[in-house]
Write a structure and sequence with these properties.
2 copies of one chain form a homodimer. Chain A has about 300 residues and is an alpha/beta fold. The first copy, chain A, has one domain: Aldolase class I (TIM Barrel). Helix content of chain A is about 40%, strand content about 15%. In chain A, the strands form 2 sheets. Chain A has an 8-stranded parallel beta barrel with strand order 1-2-3-6-7-8-9-10, surrounded by 6 helices. In chain A, strands 4-5 form a two-stranded antiparallel ribbon. In chain A, about 60% of the residues are buried.
């Protein structure tokens, strides 16, 4: 699956992903006014997402859909989540389900079926929430990760997260000299060792926050076969000139997420004349240019060389 | 919320919880035969759960509902999950949503609303998947935990999990002399320090596997204010005589989960004459007796003294 992602990045010359993390409060006020139930909310959110995807599908290689923003609207939110994933894939986009799932093996198998595989129902096998990649949390070790890997799609394991308190546990030093996040990075390299594709990266990626440049740089060196999903650009404070350390010399190795910066762009004066979709598209193009310019200063003129 | 749980444990004299982790494959074969879609599956699973809850509500203080088993049936599974939580609460049971959610603060807030709080929808606020406790993963540190704590219900943070590979990360020693799980335990005590109730326990609990006696014993001593949710009894190999180390001298301090051992009891010869509900009830009673007997050998004659 990582090969397909890299090819989509080469095609669009865009190593960024639009985070479709749609809260009802991100929608235009006149739309919000008509919403009284979870059913209304789910429908309105999906319509909003559809407009975003229609404007973004040829600019970005992938979308990341954060499930928490859908779960809070109950089953109607989950319908909007499923339809958003399905619609994005219909439009040729790669879908990253950002669910940070984790559990013991037997339970992780259920999550793996839900997002990456299929569920047996009588004589049928059906997809619940079809995605190409899933974010997962590795605190439980290998037997909580294997069921996801076995689906032969892709995952991103939390290694160094972008939030202010990520260091409380992740930055602690182990007796073996590594930090907890470096140790997790080492596990991730190992878990991906059987799925290295033609560009040298495996289907087992890592979440590495754009907000921690120094740590990201270390991890890039230590995890040569691991593709990074990089949150924290924009609203969380991560800057293009910092996150270029996540890339290799060909401009591979990372995909950078922006959510509110893209999907709420229509609320900014700069983009407001363009409407919801037009604003998102222009914000995504501006983000792409920002990252490509930063890559150029590191000697990467074109992704893929 | 922990006070309510403890009072329910005193009332039932039962420190165990029934795990309603219902896969379609756990249902009687004749029921499975009629199931062709996710909608069929969701309906059949809820009917099965209803029978379980009707037979269990006066025997156990709480149920734990593992969401992965529902997510794999799409939105129809989530409807069954919601209805199971609602029905159990109607019957007076405390509901632990076992979702192991985790994310950065803004996203964790969405999960917190979904399971422990309410979501704003226009002028209304509505419950998505109403539960009393939620399991969470603390890898992201305090700002990923606070939104859950702020809901003023209860959480269980993964500390030492029951699965075979839990030690890969959790048992590693830090430079400060603690293991990763002990460090997490220390965080949990701190996160709960503002919500200690009348029995001396806080609303921030810990998941501590029944399969690791030595580690559980250490944690019980180190975490005097933390109530333990103990998975791993039965199918995973945890025994009553081992897990008594999770309890204090009054028989408080822990609640032990069994899932397959209870909900699939009707498939065992020993219980098969009793039907689905009757078998679950008898298995739950047998589990209760098993744990109470083990507690007696430690000098606890009655929970609550």
């Amino acid at each position: 699956m990582v090969d397909q992602l890299i090819e989509a990045i080469i095609k669009t010359q865009n190593p960024s992903v639009a985070g479709i993390d749609t809260s009802l409060s991100y929608l235009p006020e006149e739309v919000q006014k008509g919403v009284k139930t979870f059913e209304d909310a789910g429908r309105a959110i999906f319509e909003f997402n559809k407009e975003l995807i229609d404007s973004l599908y040829d600019v970005v290689p992938a979308v990341k859909v954060q499930v928490a923003y859908y779960e809070m609207y109950g089953e109607w939110g989950m319908i909007a989540f499923r339809k958003t994933c399905e619609y994005a894939r219909e439009k040729g986009l790669i879908v990253i389900a950002d669910c940070k799932r984790n559990d013991i093996g037997s339970t992780a198998s259920c999550y793996a079926k839900a997002y990456l595989g299929q569920t047996e129902v009588g004589e049928n096998t059906l997809s619940a929430f079809p995605a190409d990649f899933l974010t997962v949390n590795g605190y439980l070790g290998e037997d909580g990760i294997k069921p996801f890997v076995n689906e032969k799609k892709g995952i991103y394991v939390l290694v160094k997260t972008s939030n202010p308190s990520s260091g409380e546990l992740q930055d602690l030093k182990l007796e073996n000299g590594k930090t907890v996040y470096e140790q997790m990075g080492e596990f991730v390299e190992k878990w991906g060792s059987d799925s290295i594709g033609k560009y040298g990266y495996s289907d087992v990626g890592a979440v590495v926050g754009a907000t921690y440049k120094e740590q990201a740089q270390k991890l890039r060196a230590q995890m040569p076969h691991t593709f990074f999903l990089v949150p924290g650009y924009g609203a969380q404070g991560g800057k293009a000139e910092d996150l270029v350390v996540c890339f290799d010399k060909k401009g591979f190795g990372a995909i950078v997420n922006s959510s509110r910066g893209i999907i709420c762009a229509y609320k900014k004066e700069k983009y407001s004349a363009l409407g919801i979709g037009g604003a998102a598209r222009q914000a995504a193009i501006d983000m792409k240019e920002d990252i490509l310019n930063a890559l150029k200063t590191c000697g990467v003129d074109k992704i893929g060389g």
